[in-house]
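[Automated response] Your request has been received and processed.

Submitted sequence:
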Amino acid sequence: MNKKKRRDRQADFEKELLLNPEKIAEAKKRKKRTYLLCTLLGLLAVVGMAYASFQAVRAVGKANLKNQAITAQHQMMQKEEEAPKEEEQVKWQEGWIRYQGKVYAYNEDIRTFLFMGIDKNSEVKEVAEGTNGGQADALFLAVMNPHKESIQVIGINRNTIADIDVYNDQGAYVDTIRAQLAVQHGFGNGVEESCEYQVKAVSKFFYSLPIHGYAAINMSAIETLNDAVGGVDVTVLEDLTRIDASLVEGQQVHLQGKSAFWYVKYRDISKFGSADLRLARQKQYLNGFIGVAKRAAKQDISVALKLYQAIAPMMTTNVSADEVAYLAPILVDYGFDQEEFYMVPGETVMGERFEEFYAEEDVLYEMILDIFYEEVAIEE
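Generated structure:
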């Protein structure tokens, strides 16, 4: 019976096709349009679910960052000669700073992150307690200022002389000495513990500046980061042809792969001032990289997460993927230019064995006030 019905329907269809071909063609078009519509609705549903998931991740990231900020309180030292005047004492609030006749308050909405480039060319591995954690050959503070909707970066010379906490092979604190800031990361286990030591040392150097997150990235990640955004254009600042024939001083180069790695990492330790020269290249490269990455993120907001995931094996960080997802769309809209890239002011001298960089304390103090503080008007 069923077979007979199917044969009858097929015969009717063939008859209709002969008598009314236009009607059959229209029916096929309707069927195709229905299929396309269903496919489009399915794609929209998938995109909608992905967007909803992304927003949920962002919400978690926002909450996490807020909780971290609560634990970070600034305690910048007030210079004795700039203590509050007697008539200001009544209205004076804790944390305010008086400097050169003006009063400043710390911007509590700022978020500050420490980025460290570790002199290791492999994936991150935990090491035994001691001094094998790897030195921080690149140190940069990235500052998000929502009041100005801007990103500011502070480059720190790896040879900056600062207070360094020394730990023994059992991980016990031994002493605090004056040494190059980069060596602090060498103490500890090479992962979270070393990062926390480095964060503490940098924060103390910046007058107990709150640091809300960190990322210690092994230098081996440079190629991955660079090539993921399509490379970075630079005008080569010094001749590096001994390690890469394309890195001719004064030449415009589109850095790719190993060329990017050498340009950011290499320094000739036999040459005085080599850390300063490399820091200048790192600053130049980061200026270019940030610009390229921001443009890429405007086209695809997931770029930041993709970069995060790509270098995860070569990175130790307390900034989670959901926090990156929250920050990325905000940072894309924030302004950034070369004038927002600061360097800790100071001078490099030759020590007994190694180069030593001494910061100009007064200029550094003023830079901190300029970036992290806002002027307060005290009513009479």
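Summary generated for your ticket: Residues 45-61 have pLDDT under 50 and may be disordered. The CA atoms of residues 189 and 231 lie 33 Å apart.
If you did not submit this request, please reply to this message.
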